[in-house]
Amino acid sequence: MYLNFRTPGRRSRTAAGLAVAAIATVGALGLLSSCGQSSGSSSTGAGAITPGPGQHQTAGMPGAKGSGNTTGSASGGSSMPGMSMPAGPSSTGAPAAPVTGTAVAIKNFAFSPATLKVKAGTTVTWTNQDTDAHTVTSAGSGGPLHSAALATHATYSYTFTKPGTYAYLCTIHPFMTATVEVT
After folding, report:
1. pLDDT digits 0-9 by tens, 126-157
2. Is residue 86 over pLDDT 90?
3. DSSP assignment of 104-117, as one string?
């Protein structure tokens, strides 16, 4: 037996679908026009962005006027209010001066210090302070440094017996490089 649940005089599915599409289109156009771009807008150029009702434009936002810095600066200005950039390397761009000592920290995906200066016979110890594993491996073939992967807080030590410059890296993260200068 066939049951007809359609009420008498009801529109066809096609007509109902067209009505829904028309309402959605009108709603979308209304939403777009209320987002700050209206035909009466006094924009300063094609595609200018203007704030909508109850909104304001902050320096650094597209279309903002004033001395907002949109690219950041050495003076600490930021295009994102409330955000700050970490202190970077020196503005001269010169590599850091060699540091004397016997310890190298592995933290924030870098060896610190990047250049360590020691005397022959000195034992240097690397300590991984990152949560990711790292290695201490001589750059190039035949170098003396060959650690296993160091887990967090693990250490690796090596005694430098001959003068020279020993470049090394992390084989897991090859962008991590450093040097030991032995005199």
Report:
1. 999 999 999 999 998 889 999 999 999 999 99
2. no
3. EEEETTEEESSEEE
Q: Write down how long the chain is.
A: 183
The burial of 87, by beta-carbon neighbours within 10 Å (0-12 exposed, 13-18 middle, 19 or more buried), is given as: exposed
Phi, psi of 62 (to 5 degrees): -55, 135
Using CB atoms within 10 Å of the CB of residue 126, give its burial: 0 to 12 exposed, 13 to 18 middle, 19+ buried: buried
Through-space distance between the first and last CA atoms of the chain, rounded to whole angstroms: 100
pLDDT value at position 140? 86
Structure tokens at 157: 């030590």
Q: Name residue, tokens 């490089």.
A: 177
SS3 119: coil
